[in-house]
Amino acid sequence: MTERQILEQHAQQHLVWLRNDLRTQDNPALYEASQQGHVIAVFVITHKQWESHHDSHTKLSLIYQRLKVLQEELGSLGIPLKVIEAKQYSHIPQALLELGKSLSISGLWFNNEYPLNESRRDRAVEKHFVAEGLSVHRFHGDVIFPPGSVLTGQNEMFQVFTPFARRWRQLFRQGFSKHGLSPYPKPKRQKSDILLNNIPHDDIPPFGEPLKESQGRSHEKSHDESYRQSYRDDLWPANSQAIHRKLTAFAQKRLERYGEDRDMPSLPGTSTLSPYLTIGALGIRECLAAAEKSAAKQPGSNTTLLDEWLDCTWVTELIWREFYRHIMAAHPKISWGKCFRPAGDNVRWDDNEKAFQAWCEGNTGFPIVDAGMRQLKQTGWMHNRVRMITAAFLAKLTLVDWHKGEAFFMQHLIDGDFASNNGGWQWSASVGADAAPYFRIFNPYRQAERFDPEGEYVRRFVPELQSLPAKQIHKPSLEQCRQLGYPDPIIDYSQARKRALAVLEAAFKHG
Ligand code: FAD
């Protein structure tokens, strides 16, 4: 019997397109499709993505490792995972349709993505399938509330975070408090292995190497090879048990102190779950459920406390993630590089390549900035407080266009996520959705003294300065710098601050 004949005997098979939702649990599209009949999963690779032109090496490594894990997990549920290549982004609709037809599927299922290019791609895919009489089913797996559903009294998107978060919590309490919050279960095991036996898993091509489709073509150069980090399985395990253990350990042991510890980069005060949320190895409902469960386990917990878990700072951070998704969907101009605040587009950035290179390499002569950039290079991740310090340093004190920093982060972060990264950069450059005025300028010396008072974080990533006491480590003298082989500061802080204020004022006051 041919593959097609076997499949025809199994009418009602559904194709689930996995993208940034690489999980079997809390995956609405996968679960709902499995309720309707047999499921085949697919992941599409484009050569631009896989050859690392845009995303970081560590993020692609994590996706690659995760796909292998997922293939096993899906296999144990009787679900084959196909991996297809599309030469270009615009070829994805056709590639998916061809696969769908060859497998005689009756419907396509996926969870929405919100950036502009992804939304356009998804509309094109939907059009292709519907034109062939195939059904398309879309879900919101990446957020609790889809963009456009958390609005002001005038039915508009909020311009700043705090009232957005208030409304989000209000809606959450109205929508979920009665029934609790449960992540979607894993799909049931398919009744027979017939699909898996006849449609074997596809091999996952090693990323970073030319794909079949693009072999023989002259390649565009991927980003600077000298920054290529290696993926560390010990830091970022891809298997589900390890990821869930990490979530549970955080929720049970560190969540309670998160409000106090989260700004101290030398402490393991935050969850470090962002890479998993970005690629969808972990679902947002799973995170909220873990927070709720940990509140229930606190000694003396009662209904008030149970209700209060939703107000904790960690949930606020998860709401930030959602806020930036809503902002991006409400303001498509952001996706083509525009600032949220129109005046931000008038800033006259300085094309200072030397300063930019020193920043990228962690050689600015500002220890806290260099520690952050070196943490990024060594691990693929950077602490949130230090992301704010390094981003504000580049955008304000060197006046290098924040878009360059945004792209560099995307190319090096293991959790690189367009909406959160863009939102974080616009916030740091004071051109984004933020209540603070443009003249807020972080003083890197003061930030370092406040958030790394003992200099432990700097010592960890800037070994040249290891011997310096806490009092000197954040602002070594020129003599110390030269003795220890550490670079002189690339700017004078006070002068740079004055210059930044003048340039920003020109854009914001007179622009
Ligand atoms: P936790 O403190 O444990 O927070 C839990 C989760 O909430 C995070 O995993 C993340 O998904 C979300 N979150 C936390 N803080 C923020 C925030 N400020 N904005 C949006 N979501 C948040 N986050 C990314 O996931 N991807 C990015 O590419 C990214 N780029 C950033 C760039 C800049 C310039 C700045 C200032 C922030 C950026 N962030 C980004 C947000 C934040 O720094 C990271 O989410 C956080 O450091 C991840 O660590 P964690 O998992 O330990 O977070």
Automatic annotation (TrEMBL):
Gene3D superfamilies the record matches: 1.25.40.80, DNA Cyclobutane Dipyrimidine Photolyase, subunit A, domain 3, HUPs
List required co-factors: FAD; (6R)-5,10-methylene-5,6,7,8-tetrahydrofolate
Q: What does the record give under GO molecular function?
A: deoxyribodipyrimidine photo-lyase activity; DNA binding; FAD binding
Q: Which UniProt keywords apply?
A: Chromophore, FAD, Flavoprotein
GO biological process: any one? photoreactive repair
Instruction: Give the catalytic activity.
Output: cyclobutadipyrimidine (in DNA) = 2 pyrimidine residues (in DNA)
Q: What is its EC number?
A: 4.1.99.3
| Cofactor info, note text | Binds 1 FAD per subunit.
Where, in this chain's numbering, is FAD bound? 258, 270-274, 314, 317-324, 415-417
Q: What class of enzyme is it?
A: lyase
Q: Where is the composition biased (Basic and acidic residues)?
A: 200-228
Q: Classify the source by domain of life.
A: Bacteria
Instruction: Outline the segment boundaries, as ranges, of region: Disordered.
Output: 197-228
Q: Where is this site: Electron transfer via tryptophanyl radical?
A: W349, W402, W425
Ranges of residues in domain Photolyase/cryptochrome alpha/beta? 12-144
Family (UniProt)? Belongs to the DNA photolyase class-1 family.
Q: What does this protein do?
A: Involved in repair of UV radiation-induced DNA damage. Catalyzes the light-dependent monomerization (300-600 nm) of cyclobutyl pyrimidine dimers (in cis-syn configuration), which are formed between adjacent bases on the same DNA strand upon exposure to ultraviolet radiation.
Q: What is this protein called?
A: Deoxyribodipyrimidine photo-lyase
Name the source organism.
Marinibactrum halimedae
